[in-house]
Amino acid sequence: MQAYLDFMWMTRDFKFFIINVVADFILSLSGVVAVFLLAERFAGIGVWSRDQVLFMLGYAALVDGVLEMFCSYNVLHISRRIGRGQLDHTLVQPQPLWMALLTEGFMPFSGCWGFLAGLGISAWAFGQLDLALSFGWWLGYGVHLLSSCAVVLAFSFLWGALAFWSPVGAEEISSEAVSFTRQLKSFPLDGLHPILVNGLLSVVPVGFVAWYPCRVLLGINGDAGSLWVTPLFACALSLVALIAFKKGLHYYGQTGSQRYLRWGHRS
Amino acid sequence: MDKLDRNATYAGDIAVELKGVDKTFYQRQRSARVRDVFKNLFRPTLREIHALRQVDLTVRRGEIVAYAGPNGAGKSTTVKLLSSVLAPTSGTVRALGMDPMQDRVRYVNRIGVVFGQRTELWWDQPVSASFEWKRVVWDIPQERYERMLGLVRELLGLDEFFDSLARQLSLGQKMRADLGLMLLHEPEILFLDEPTIGVDVLAKRNILDFIKNINREQGVTVMITSHDMDELEQLAGRIVMIDRGRIAYDGPFDRLRSHFGDRRRLRLQTGGEEAPALEHAELLQTQAGWHEYVFAAAQVKLPTLLEAAAAQVPVLDVETHRAPIDEVIADIYEEWEE
């Protein structure tokens, strides 16, 4: 159903359709091009070769693309919905909240262009790298990709839950959290002070969006045990986000929405 | 205060039941003085807002109940409690035998909610797409969907804008589309919170006719809030009035009028600009030889007033009618404030 709505929206005007596609492509590429040019100029960054950097950039673009495709309509920017009082729309639908949120953000037509750009970059990187692509490796790649998406989503929901308590002050907090991960995701973190690296792999888990999973997948750190780190961290962060969100939702049930703004996908 | 005399009801006959419901909100108070900045931050003063206090309310199946009160009286809070988006502080809320918060998914499948200032329509989509979306999300069987779609398209006149984008509709068209959308799954209860706010006279009449029609034809229970009392009187036999969170009146409109004095208007044409002085009647205005008075029918009879007028000046013409219910209600609100 959401795919149908998205298709109808996307195809309402041919000029609009083309502009949308081009803009999404440019946005996806602009997010990774600076780091790629650095890698190109210096034949790599630190222990990463140019092609490995390309692989990481493709991976990062795919994470963005998947989230764009499945978590649009302010599902990823959940604090907007909470802060604007629009969650009421979802609560009067006869389906569990998680199901509504998982389905409402699905935009396979208008939201797929970033994903396609990520596929393109990844395909180019695979062509350059000499990887032994077994079934197990692909499975690991898929699990890591989903885990990275889960980390970004959970990080957004964890901060976004604050909007239950402070709808005005925290309305844009999810967007800021997501934007933070987007800005830093494409930088290799090797060589930073260990405290900073640990901070970027825990408190602000930007390292799990692309850098750490790609190190593992490319065998850069050579530690097989670390295969589990990203999925486990994603599970743990999702659990914390779930608890925070449920607490916020309970609070919302006590206070309701004190304001309603007409922005968003509905009036 | 009067309570509606009701026959004993059995559980299956009750659509909505609120027992001893309290709803309290806390509002942070802030002083504008700079010296209070730390107090505002770390030890803010919280003001308790009692949106509802010990509310007991029963609505039977098939009833249309008008739910009225001044701004901030607790009307929207009640509708939210009954729409699964808000929990009471204490007391029990039951509707269709369910707890709206605990049984949310099952419950909202059997009710319809319209908030006058919001829309459930997909903003950048044609109205038809929102209807299709509703069919899928509410899992409405095809036969029922087509039957109800035909009904609402005809009764609400949706055809003229069914393929237009929701954001291009007028307020009245949007409300009609929202009402139609709400009815697709054949809800057993409708909660309408200010459904005609900002809507023009013609659209308002269409909406009211439609609500009456589906209540009569389909036996749908309706609970409606509005500031427009005349509109509520046209629609509902029973009015529940709420003031500062308490139910202040629950009964028929007629009894409300008689309780607060059956106010009538009297217009006399005398040809002159000097209005006759009438005991127990208050002169409202004089214009082009017409003099308008208001009086309480229980206090003074109409023939007495006419006799008194005729004794002073020649009376050329007479008009009389009941004062609009809005006036009665305004008097009640004023009395409550005092």
Entry summary:
Chain A has helices spanning 2-10, 14-41, 50-70, 78-83, 87-91, 97-104, 113-128, 135-160, 162-165, 173-184, 194-200, 211-218, 229-255. Chain A is an all-alpha fold. In chain B, helix 5 (142-156) packs antiparallel against helix 6 (171-183).
Task: Please tell me about this protein's structure.
- The complex is a heterodimer of chains A (267) and B (338).
- Chain A is mainly α.
- Chain A is 66% helix and 0% strand.
- The longest helix of chain A is centred in the N-terminal third of the chain and has 28 residues, at 14-41.
- The radius of gyration of chain A is 19 Å and the shape is globular.
- Chain B is 33% helix and 29% strand.
- Chain B contains eleven helices and 13 strands.
- The longest helix of chain B is centred in the middle third of the chain and has 18 residues, at 201-218.
- The chains are: A mainly alpha (267), B alpha/beta (338).
- Chain A binds chain B through residues 1, 4-5, 8-9, 12, 88-89, 91-96, 253-257, 260, 264-267, and chain B through 25, 77, 80, 83-87, 89, 101, 104-106, 108-109, 113, 115, 117-126, 129, 132-133, 136-139, 166-167, 174.
**Main pleated sheet of chain A:** none
Structural class of chain B: alpha/beta
Helix content of chain B: 25-40%
Shape verdict of chain A? globular
In quaternary terms, these chains amount to heterodimer
- Low-confidence runs of at least 5 consecutive residues of chain A: none
Q: What's the arrangement of strands in the largest beta sheet of chain B?
A: 5-6-7-3-8-9
H/E series of chain B: EHEEHEHEHHHEHEHEEHEEEHEH
Low-confidence stretches of chain B: 1-10
Structure classification of chain A? mainly alpha
Number of strands of chain A: 0
Give me the Rg of chain A, rounded: 19 Å
- What's the story with the biggest beta sheet of chain B? 6 strands, mixed
* Strand coverage percent of chain A: under 5%
The helicity of chain A comes to 55-70%
How would you spell out the order of helices and strands of chain A?
Answer: HHHHHHHHHHHHH
Number of helices of chain B: 11
* Count of beta strands of chain B: 13
